[in-house]
Design brief:
The protein has 7 helices and 8 strands. By secondary structure, the protein is of the alpha/beta class. Strand 6 and strand 7 form a beta hairpin.
């Protein structure tokens, strides 16, 4: 995920390892803290506690090369679930594969949990994980133009969902299932180069 980021590849190998480790740890620690506050609540119930509505839309999930399952919108805070984006994935997973990859959780649980991480990150005082590592894009003398690494927030959000829901695997595996599910849709014939997943938050 980091190497596919437009800027993550610019970090040297040691910085890449440190960045991914930090993102995974941040997501896991955030989920642990949230679970202490809400020991038995589902992600949907936690969202209600945070007064973050969960809205479902029938909008086209495809934007450019991104196939959207869900997204967090900060103003006002809300979580959007894309029905037409999630449905092919749910069909492809079925019951057996879903249990193997997600345990007792559903894909919608995973996507809500993923977006909850983005909400918790938006309302806390710490520097967002995506801005903790900033590779240099351009340099003139001592002046440097730097950029954050958006993939780190997605890695952390996945670790958050995995920890919060006790998933057997990081939910990135859903993207690999989705590639197969989406590519066989009649309306997506000939589609190439798309990236399934939650849209950048």
């Amino acid at each position: 995920m980091l190497r596919a980021d437009p800027h993550g590849w610019r970090l040297d190998h040691a910085a890449q390892l440190a960045a991914v480790s930090d993102a995974l740890a941040d997501g896991t620690a955030t989920a642990r803290d949230l679970r202490k506050r809400f020991p038995v609540l589902t992600p949907q119930e936690v969202a209600r506690e945070f007064q973050v509505p969960i809205e479902t839309t029938d909008d086209d999930p495809m934007v450019g090369s991104i196939w959207r399952f869900a997204e967090y919108r900060p103003r006002p805070p809300r979580i959007m679930l894309y029905d037409r984006g999630i449905a092919p994935l749910e069909r492809k997973l079925g019951n057996v594969l879903a249990k193997r990859l997600l345990g007792q959780a559903t894909p919608r649980d995973v996507f809500v949990a993923h977006e909850l991480y983005h909400h918790t990150e938006a309302i806390r005082s710490e520097v967002p994980i995506a801005r903790r590592y900033q590779p240099t894009l351009f340099r003139i003398g001592n002046w440097r133009w730097r950029s954050g690494v958006a993939a780190l927030a997605e890695i952390a959000a996945g670790a958050f969902a995995q920890s919060l829901l006790d998933l057997p695997r990081h939910p990135r595996v859903l993207d690999f299932v989705a590639v197969d599910a989406i590519s066989i849709l009649p309306s997506q014939a000939g589609l190439s180069g798309f990236e399934p997943g939650t849209s950048p938050s």
